[in-house]
Amino acid sequence: MYLNKIELTNYRNYEQIQLNFSKRLNIFLGENAQGKTNLLESIYVLALARSHRTSNDKELIEWSQDFARIIGSVEKQHGPIDLTMIISNKGKKTKINGLEQQRLSHYIGHLNVILFAPEDLSLVKGSPQNRRKFLDMEIGQINPQYLHYLSTYQLVLKQRNQYLKKMGLSKQQDLLYLEVLTEQLAQAGSHVLYYRLQFLEKLEKWANEIHRKISYGKEQLNISYKSFQKMTKEQTVSEFEAIFLSELKKNEKKDLQQYTTSAGPHRDDLLFFVNDKNVQTYGSQGQQRTTALSLKLAEIELINDEIGEYPILLLDDVLSELDDDRQVQLLEMIETKLQTFLTTTSLTHLQDKLTIDPEVFNITQGVVERDGD
């Protein structure tokens, strides 16, 4: 798949702009704070209906306006589709080929993107929350059912925590309603667990293969899912539900005392091992960055494996953060396989490594000029 063109209206510092793109490599070139990352972000928002930079959608709207609109024309194996994302004070509205979608889960997945930004290099060393977000965003792109169960889980989790607090503060003991919430949480959470483990099995296969290549065959990468109990991909959803429900009931007294749900997918984590050594704790910075790069490149192959075509890759000023070997590994993959959008302040570190001529867009204070125009 590839993004043929995009049109922005009142999006951050872009009042009105329409751009056509190359099917291969597109470079947004400019100094910092000129709008190149805003442009890259708009593609991400068009695909996933949310920003990777802020949770406040109002920040995406030009300050003097009351709405922002992104329209994209996407070419896929089975034909072209038009996607529309409208953001306003009333919320989000999405359209596919002009037809409004009632649920975001019906919209997400029609344009698949992989974002690689400098902060992703800390995916391995960073917080568990970042790794859970990584799982949620990537699985959600290829599995609408996961989004459904994740959304349900988050809603019931919020209700359960609120009720735990209410019971704890008022000393009420309506355990029947708590039991209902606990069962609903276990039901939705068991599906979240199931889909995460299925996804990680496939991700590990691709990531290990790529990691071995980057390390010239010296290192093997393994991924482990850290939860409240040891779980395996061979277990069924029903087994997960029984295990989770038992854990919730075991922790009920503690949860009532602390006003929060102490176990579940919302507290789980990923562990990464290089040659059987925990790379988060004992790995070098180079091993941690190689692991992060392997995960991102593995996502590309996994999505292609799942849906039959490559996603679009968004690189937000990330090449300058990688050493020469990792830059070469990344560029070798993207130049031959998929459409890529790359932001950078300079082309000097790319000129000797690229084998194809990119489409270059020069950006200055929200004004975009294509090289050669």
From TrEMBL:
Keywords: ATP-binding, Cytoplasm, DNA damage, DNA repair, DNA replication, DNA-binding, Nucleotide-binding, SOS response. NCBIfam families: recf. GO terms for molecular function: ATP binding; single-stranded DNA binding. Its main location: cytoplasm. ATP binds at residues 30-37. This is DNA replication and repair protein RecF. The keyword DNA damage applies. Residues 2-346 form the RecF/RecN/SMC N-terminal domain. It is found in: Cytoplasm. InterPro entries: DNA-binding_RecF, DNA-binding_RecF_CS, P-loop_NTPase, RecF/RecN/SMC_N, RecF_2. It comes from Vagococcus silagei. The keyword Nucleus does not apply. The RecF protein is involved in DNA metabolism; it is required for DNA replication and normal SOS inducibility. RecF binds preferentially to single-stranded, linear DNA. It also seems to bind ATP.
